[in-house]
Amino acid sequence: MRIALLAHLRHPIAPPFAGGLEAYCWHLADGLTARGHEVVLFASGDSDPRFTLDAMIPVHHERSFPGLEHRGDPGLKAHVDAGYAAACDRIAAGGFDIVHNNSLSRLPLERRRTEIVPTVTSLHAPPYDALRWFVHDSPSPGHRITATSAAHLRAWWPDGAPPEACVLHNGIDPEAWPCREDGNGSGVWSGRIARVKGAHHAIAAARRAGLPLTLFGPIEEPDHWRDDIVPLLGGTIRYGGHLAGPALAAEMARASVFLFTPCWDEPFGLAAIEAMACGLPVAGFDRGAAAEVVGEAGCLVPSGDEAALAGAIPEALAIPRGIPRERVLRLFTRDRWLDRCEALYAQLSPSPAPRAEP
């Protein structure tokens, strides 16, 4: 198949990943290419050059419009909309069999576009006003919508999802996240350092429990980092930087427990399954999709309750490392995820579109 993979533009689609959405798009491009598909990645121009790249904007917009995401800035909105509109026009004329839309933009959802090229839209955020109506209006014979968890699907459609919408769990390559027999007794936390990710709660709980803790991830909100995180660092609590996959996997595998602290309705929680693949049980907040993802591999407590989280740490540490690893192998592998993607594509485009003669 010739596949147009439409990405979000806030960050480059390149390692080390800014977050789960960037990792999702990169691994989707990599996995589909490895399976023999012709993939064109529509993303910012500073994304990974190993892919066939169609640059919607020259550089990711966090560089050109720093700190303006979610601020309603008209300049940023016009910049991003222009990039997506032109890309959608190129896709319509490009002989693609399928579009896999991960953009969080309303423009690829328009029926005049999904009627030209069949589209799978994967939602990566909880419902919000700027997109909700367009998503709800978009189901059609040429358009399928996926949510990353059953909890995420219910959030978008509390009264029941349409038949064109389904759950598509994220997946990882377990070989990239190797498991060791024993940990060193420490904890890890990984994710974007932003208030909604709750690293400050993880630090507070670790101190209560006497657990050495290392934080990993990009600093997305400098004021939160400065005001809420830096004053809490020191002693057995440290920041390990923003690491690429192999280095992060090695750090994860040495630890004994993963702290997962979403302060929003986390649609999935990719960092949790990365840690689980390394054999780490999870102590975390029961919010969003956490229970669905973690299952028997951890101990979850009400969101924001630092004392309860501290109490959950020894309970999680008692879970054998084989349990989280086995849960990932059973439910959240990259091959399982890519199989589901290909099945969705085949529903919409059962045979490749004919190519125009040169």
Topology record:
Layout: E1 2-6, H1 20-34, E2 38-44, E3 52-57, H2 61-64, H3 74-92, E4 98-101, H4 111-114, E5 119-122, H5 129-137, E6 143-147, H6 150-156, E7 165-167, E8 187-190, H7 199-209, E9 213-216, H8 222-229, E10 237-239, H9 245-254, E11 257-260, H10 270-277, E12 282-285, H11 290-294, E13 298-301, H12 306-317, H13 322-331, H14 334-348
Helix pairs in contact: 7-12, 10-13
Description:
The structure is a single chain. This protein is of the alpha/beta class and 358 residues long. The chain has two domains: 2-171 and 334-348, Glycogen Phosphorylase B (Rossmann fold); 174-331, Glycogen Phosphorylase B (Rossmann fold). Helices cover 38% and strands 16% of the residues. It contains 14 helices and 13 strands. The strands form two sheets. Strands 3-2-1-4-5-6-7 form a seven-stranded parallel β-sheet. A six-stranded parallel β-sheet has the order 10-9-8-11-12-13, with helices on both faces. Strand 11 (257-260), helix 10 and strand 12 form a beta-alpha-beta unit. It holds the Pfam family Glyco_trans_1_4. GO terms for molecular function: glycosyltransferase activity. Keywords: Transferase. InterPro entries: Glyco_trans_4-like_N.
